[in-house]
């Protein structure tokens, strides 16, 4: 896994990365299920409203709350973007 961009406190960043890896491994062939798992657990742990996009070859521009964004790559080309915006 490679972090491309992060704007999160260290403890939250580590937990979020671990969650992303777990979800992507558990649902290796189903990005939608992995994203749903990440979103539901982030909402539960850090409050709503979290958003998650998982896929290959996408660009994005999002408005997010300060200290609530993580963009990482998993397994080479799979990108995971997690952000909070209420």
UniProtKB/TrEMBL annotation:
GO cellular component, one term: axoneme
The keyword Magnesium appears for this protein: no
Presence of the UniProt keyword Cytoplasm in the record: yes
Keywords: Cell projection, Cilium, Cytoplasm, Cytoskeleton, Dynein, Microtubule, Motor protein
Pfam family, one: Dynein_light
Family matches, as InterPro entries: DLC_sf, Dynein_light_chain_typ-1/2
Protein's GO biological process: microtubule-based process
Coiled-coil annotated residue ranges, if any: none
Subcellular localization: Cytoplasm, Cytoskeleton, Cilium axoneme
Domain of life according to the entry: Eukaryota
Matches recorded under CDD domains: DLC-like_DNAL4
Signal peptide stretch: none
Physiological role: Force generating protein of respiratory cilia. Produces force towards the minus ends of microtubules. Dynein has ATPase activity.
Entry's family note: Belongs to the dynein light chain family.
Subunit field text: Consists of at least two heavy chains and a number of intermediate and light chains.
Designated name of the protein: Dynein light chain
């Amino acid at each position: 896994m490679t972090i491309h961009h992060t704007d999160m406190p260290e403890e939250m960043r580590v937990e979020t990365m671990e969650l992303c890896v777990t979800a992507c491994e558990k649902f290796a062939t189903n990005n939608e299920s992995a994203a749903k798992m990440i979103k539901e657990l982030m909402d539960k742990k850090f409050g709503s409203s979290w958003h998650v996009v998982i896929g290959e070859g996408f660009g994005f521009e999002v408005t997010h709350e300060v200290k609530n964004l993580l963009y990482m790559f998993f397994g080479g080309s799979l990108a995971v973007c997690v952000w909070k915006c209420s």
